[in-house]
Amino acid sequence: xxxxxxxxxxxxxxxxxxxxxxxxxxxxxxxxxxxxxxxxxxxxxxxxxxxxxxxxxxxxxxxxxxxxxxxxxxxxxxxxxxxxxxxxxxxxxxxxxxxxxxxxxxxxxxxxxxxxxxxxxxxxxxxxxxxxxxxxxxxxxxxxxxxxxxxx
Length: 152
Fold this sequence. Notes:
The chain has helices spanning 6-17, 28-35, 39-51, 76-84, 108-124, 127-151, and strands at 55-58, 64-67. It is mainly α.
């Protein structure tokens, strides 16, 4: 199954947690606790996101980490590329060292088309879309729990 790297997945999850609650910089350890990501690993991820201009970070007692832009202006592909590089979809789907139009594997044409579709979808999706999805999912979970409690 093709999935994003753990780093990219953790980053998207953590960035979507940053919009919950207060509108101020937050400490990495607090964000990690809120979204269930290991704090030391998240600190390394956030360093890359700061370097990419997705986050801003300030040291000191009034410091913390915050989004550099509004969630609707941060595309998921930016997050993935900051962690996995712009070539994250490159390479052979079957893992062949050499796979090109001239020396193709059986899945080369399929993967060539799919890479374009995947990159396009990641470019369309913003952090605001992820946040909205997570909020809808949380509301649905609360509704199911309320129904289950009422019928018990």
